[in-house]
Amino acid sequence: MKAQTVPPNTMQRLRRNIGKALHHGDRIWQWLTIGAGIGVALLLLGIGWMLWRDSADARSAFGLGFLAPTADASWNPVLDKFEAWPFIYGTLITSAVALLLAIPISVGIGIFLAELCPSWLRLPLGWMLELLAAIPSVVFGLWGIFVFLPEVVEPLGTFLAGTLGLLPGIGALFAGPIPASGASRLAAALILTIMIVPTISAVTRDVFLAIPRSQREAAYALGATEWETISQVLVPYGLSGVLGAVILGLGRALGETMAVTMVIGNSIGGAVSLLRPGYTMSSIIANEFAEAVSRLHSQALIEIGFLLFIVTLLVNMAARFLVWRVARRTPQEGRA
Amino acid sequence: MGKKMFLVMTGLCTAVLLSACGTAAPATVEVTRSVNQTVVVTPTADPNAAAPLPAGSVQINGAGATFPLPVYSAWTFAYQYVDPSVVINYQGIGSGGGKKAIIDGTVDFAGSDSLLKDEEYTSGKDLQMYPMLAGAVVPIYNIKWAKEIPSGTKLPVMILDRQTLVDIYNAKVVTWNDAKILATNPDLAEYLPGEAITAVHRSDGSGTTEIFTKSLTAFSPEWTAGGASAVEWPVDKAGNGMGGKGNQGVAAAVINTPNSIGYVELSYAVSNGMSYASMVNKAGKIVVASAESMSSAMSDFAGSFSEKLTADIVDAPGALSWPIAGYTYIILHTENMSDCIKAQKLLEFLRWALTDPGAAKQASDLGYSVLPEDVRDTVLGKLGEVTCNGTVLLP
Fold it and tell me: Could you tell me if A78 lies within 8 Å of chain B, comparing CB atoms?
């Protein structure tokens, strides 16, 4: 009704002018997206800066010795003496083992789902995979404590201690005995494996599904078997995508807190062995931050948070670089 | 005004008003918080009875220790039937967080299991601590007996002396058939295995750990790791330690690890049916953790409160006293509370919690030890000194 009080052509002109000034919405859209993009960057820098600032006292008190790999590291809130090595080691070793186990399994699953799986099975299997990825980590932790650890990890650990544990050199990694509850670095690594397999395999599957049909047809036309097609053509073609999937998995493994805290045993002893209880960077923060009363204690925890932030950042950057290298190389090889 | 009797049933979460009757005469209200514990609470007389405040008009916020959270929730729930004008909110964010919040002035009261430091008193000049309840910590154990237990017999509960407990967490006593353990448990001699002891502790910083490690410090000079909410465990360094998150994490680790020992709140051990050890106390007597032995421990130290009303009640000397115990405190500003009505209502709530038999029953049903009379009177006396704009709030 109101529109009729203004002459129609005036109204139209006004709208046209506003439209022109805003490039018919393009400007607003541009501002919004630029704002969102800058917001993410600012958020990242802000978090990093906050962690850096709030750990100043701990950094000046402990210096680089905080990170030094020592067998007899100390984490003593009573005496305010903190060294982070047991946690750094725990995070690195559990993530590394998890990745080592998860890569072949999940690439296998990805290839199966994309290439070999009968089509009636593909959809339900894919759903289940995605459901597995969606299970909250605390549920994995509970299942770990009551089922997986006593039933699988403990017997496996006992077996490993009796076989690999006797070897010189590498034996130190498998020195037993594993606690009867199964709580150990190995348990954390295996739980992490289970948690990152769905992530990696779902992405791997999508990568393989995205490979053009022509690549497969060309290989078959040349007389390649199914195995040769997959290993010689599809895997090299999809390598950069698979690497990206692995990075996603690694990111989850490095930062995973709850499930690991519940199964790793939370003890700073146990030397280097996978079969003994350990600790990770995220676990110590989750465990102690709420009741860290002394200033140095909370600052030391924040410094560990900063380290975790940097480690994750570095790993992601290294991975991007790797993906970029592979992606640049692949088409050239294809042409050769 | 006649005293109204309120029948309050406490339990878990939801509230159902079963019946509210009697408009003029003294009323009885039955309140169900599900499950089946029943207590009777008596309301404090409303001093503003002539002009009662509207329901829910006074919001009181508290935060802090998680250890007393279950009973504070039960109390605040029951209290809305005692004084409907008050809504009390308590968040379990940890003692450290609670102390920070009361110093920063973001809450009206804080709960804490650990004490304020001297420098924290200077940053909040009128802070005062008030013991509300005490908690007992008990050693729990899970042993795979070396010998089949003959059917029809029941093994006696393990008895540990104070030095042995220190030795276990110092990794000096490392097997269950160590002579020191056998000395106090002759009846268990043939059943105790020669297996290594896994000693479980809290991985998260906690008041339970503070009580436990303060006790170990009092038990023996050989315990050098100190008494705090998180310590560096010698048994961890020896490779035989394990950390569990929360009471339930420790309990799960002990249940799942044969030949292990751990420590949890008494209420937790009782409600989960776990075997917990008896202790030989300072007086050389064997005691079981219970309301009586806790009450005795508190009375032993009733005269040793500091000006800030803090006291360690570990390693009590009385013959009946449980040796591993600690207070949980409320922290208040004693002079500078901004809102006098709020301050008044808060103090009334605290007085109710300390004196009402229903509140006491709620606490003991949940496994807490209520203050013995001598201690309670000291606390009430201190509460009576709180002022707002120069006027005493609790007459």
Answer: yes
